[in-house]
Each structure stands twice: as C-alpha cells, then as structure tokens.
Design a protein that fits this description.
globular; 440 residues; 34 strands; mainly beta; four-stranded antiparallel beta sheet; 0% helix
Length: 440
C-alpha cells in the first residue's frame, strides 16, 4: 500500500536505474531496492538499507530521485515522505545512508494520496535551492514547496533568510459552487514541462485530486501556474475517476520537447486512474483526455506509481527507449514498461524477481572493488552461482551455503579479474535468473 517507484540517471552513468520502496503491509518483505532499468526481460533487484524501522512505510509513502551537480561533491539522493508522519527523509545514494532532513510544517501528516515531486533549480532570493512540491493527501488541502538550499539544511551554518517550506494556495478548480480543495487517495502531481536533468524548469503543475469514498467527492483535475500561484480547472476525471492507486506522470514527449513545432508536444501526461481499474490514458495538453495505447493487464491498486525514464534493451548505452515505468501496487509483483515506439517491448511487463523471495538476489556492494557478497533470500538449498565476463566466458563458480556466498573477485586461477562488467546466473529447479555486477 505504501510502495513507491522513482527513476534516476546520474549524468555520466551508462544506464538509468530504478528505486523501489516496498511497504510492510504487502506480501513482499519490507525494504528498499534498486535495479538497472532494463536488459532483456528480467529486472534484477538489489537490496539497499531501508529507512529506520520506526518509520516503516506501511501506508502512503512517496519517493523522489534528484541529482545536483552544483555541490562538492555532487548530491545524488532519493527524498521520501511516509504516511502518518510530518518528516522528510533523504537517502544518500553514494553512501547508502538514511537521514531525517527536515520537519514538514502543517496541521496534518502525510496521508493517502500524498505525493512528492522534484521541481527543478531556482534562486530564492539570491539563495540557490532545489525545489520539491508536496501534497499531503489524506483529505487535507495542504500544498507546499520545499526550498532545499544546496547541500541540505544540515550544511548551512545559519538559517537562510528564505522560507524553507512555503504553503501554496490549496487545490481548486474555480468552478462555480465547487468548494472542495482537499486531496484524497489517488491524488498525484506532475511537473510541466518535466525536469529532465538540468535543461528545463517547470512553469505549471498538473494535479489529480483523487477521490473521497466517504463523501463521494474529488476526481477533479486542475493546473497550477507557478508564477501567478493560481489554479485553473482542466477536464474532470469523471469516468473512471482517480481513486486508490491513481498516478500521474509528465514526460518530455516521445520526441524532443525543445523542438518547435512537434506533433507530439501535446502528448505530455499519462495516468493510471486507479480504483482497482486498469485504465491507462493520455492527457493532451492543454485540453482533453484520450485513450492512449493498450491498457495494462493488471489491476491498479494501492501503491501504484508511474515514472518516466528509459529502458535499455542491450548492454550498449545507446540502445535505449524512452518510456514510462509502472508499478501496479498492492498484491502485484510486476514492474511494467510502456513506450510508443514500434517494438516488442511496447506495453510489455518485464518480470521482476523482487516479490518471489526464493529468487530475490542481493549483491553488495555493486560496484565492487575488493569483494562481493551474494545472497538469495529464502533459498531452500545449496545452489551454484556462475559468474561470466562481458563476452560470455565463465570466470568462476561458487557454492551458496544456505543461499549466501562471497566472491573475492578472482577467477578460477586465483587471479584478480579486470575491471569491467560481469554477469552472475543461478538456477533453481527449472527457473534461471541472475544479474549484473560491476567490478572497479
């Protein structure tokens, strides 16, 4: 129910990566995972340190990747908010550590429909900040922006003369007689234009209000203009609405947003409507919703998420497709990928080993410099792990005792293997799986 998905691609890295937070209410083990975004049809997840147990994301979590090259060293983090709490936490990707970053002011904690999104870089005023927009959900109208001074608040010796948190005008549609300004479960935000790397700053925010099952309200869709701080009604989500698991994503079109004119400039938003339905639609900015491509074969429930990124279908960094990654929420063990381009990957659902504990890999550290440990969660018996070089040569094989083993990064002859990319494979009964390990 509190699962959350985000995509990151640090400039200079060969491939993008996915981060997935799995709640403790699902049938999967509670935890935090990452995986390279693609390769064939199998996504191999690697476990990361999870947030402290006292903030276990049983409900209503939201996570958001960002990279800031303007600090020394550069920042690469995943920010997170958790249901029932008024705190913003940060996961530092290089050091793999969690820390509580700031208290979130306001009358209520994060609730169903809470959403955190990266809003780009700005000067406020004279202070360089990264912006993060937040709706609290849970039947609250609270909508605000976090002005994160470069380096995080902990590195600032004295408080800057700017508001760290700014409360913004609550959601509205400006419709006569409509006074509901709250966000409910299924609510979500999307920046427009999106913020790919450092090239664009958003001018508007699109928002789905979600749906209140108690009062039969919500389901509205509006646009917020950042410069004027005003809301404007767009098309309503009357059918099928935006309910449990609703998710909204903005992307830079399948082409290039900066090129004018482009026939695809309008195809900028996609959404899951949620509510235990499987409708996947496109919003043509600025005017209307329309069906777009095939609907996924899975029901969208609590904890679903959509993020724009790319899928690498080979080890060549240039072999990538832009598209939308999707998690389908409660009781579903699939991660999906959707692209508009004519390919066998269109609308496909790459398999994930995350929610099948007997085949869940943990390979740490990755990249490895001195040694690497492998673990297969729930492995029922001893199995053999084979390690191959990038050209397919068998380098070594190890026996996993009770599902665990350590590799000293040496080959069969006891020589340290060269730096590069290696692939490990295991076979349990008739099922084979594996992953990739980078040796430095």
């Amino acid at each position: 129910m509190g699962s959350a998905l985000t995509y990151g691609h640090r400039p200079g890295e060969p491939y993008g990566k996915l981060f997935l937070l799995v709640d403790s209410c699902n049938r999967a083990p509670y935890g935090f995972f990452w995986a390279y975004a693609g390769f064939g049809g199998t996504i191999v997840w690697h476990q990361l340190p999870g947030p402290p147990r006292e903030i276990a994301p049983c409900h209503d979590a939201s996570i958001c990747y960002f990279f800031n090259p303007y600090t020394n060293p550069p920042e690469e983090k995943v920010l997170a908010v958790f249901g029932g709490r008024n705190e913003l936490w940060a996961f530092d990707v290089p050091t793999q550590t969690w820390s509580k970053e700031t208290f979130i002011p306001g009358e209520v904690p994060i609730g169903a429909g809470g959403s955190l999104k990266f809003g780009g870089f700005a000067m406020v005023p004279g202070w360089p900040v990264t912006k993060f927009y937040l709706i609290k959900g849970g039947g609250s109208p609270e909508f605000g922006v976090y002005n994160r001074v470069y380096g995080g608040q902990g590195s600032i010796k004295s408080p800057p003369p700017i508001p760290v948190w700014q409360l913004l005008p609550p959601f509205t549609t400006n419709e006569p007689g409509y006074t509901d300004t709250c966000f409910y479960e299924g609510a979500d935000l999307a920046m427009w234009p999106p913020v790919p790397y450092l090239t664009l700053s958003p001018t508007h925010i699109y928002a789905m209000q979600g749906y209140s099952w108690m009062s039969n309200t919500g389901r509205r869709f509006s646009r917020y203009e950042i410069s004027s701080m005003t809301w404007e009604a767009r098309d309503n989500l009357i059918r099928p609405g935006a309910g449990i698991g609703g998710a909204l994503v903005s992307h830079d079109t399948w082409g290039n947003l900066t090129q004018e004119p482009t026939a695809e400039r309008a195809s900028i938003l996609h959404c899951f409507h949620g509510g235990y339905d499987n409708v996947f639609n496109c919003y043509d900015v600025p005017d209307n919703w329309s069906p777009d491509g095939e609907d996924p074969p899975y029901i969208v429930a609590y904890g679903s998420d959509l993020v724009f990124g790319a899928y690498w279908y080979s080890q060549n960094p240039s072999d990538s497709l832009p598209g939308i990654w999707a998690s389908f929420g409660y009781n579903n063990d699939r991660i999906g990928f959707y692209t508009e381009f004519p390919t066998e990957l269109k609308g496909s659902q790459p398999s994930s080993s995350l929610l099948t504990p007997a085949k869940t890999f943990i390979a740490l550290p990755n990249p490895a410099q001195r040694s690497a440990s492998f673990q297969i969660l729930g492995a029922p018996h001893n199995i053999i792990l084979k390690i191959y070089s990038e050209n397919g040569t068998l380098v070594n094989q190890l026996k996993l005792e009770n599902g665990k083993c350590m590799w000293n990064l040496k080959d069969f002859e006891g020589k340290k293997v060269p730096a590069g990319v290696y692939f490990y494979r295991i076979k349990i009964n008739a099922a084979e799986t594996g992953g990739k390990l980078i040796v430095k």
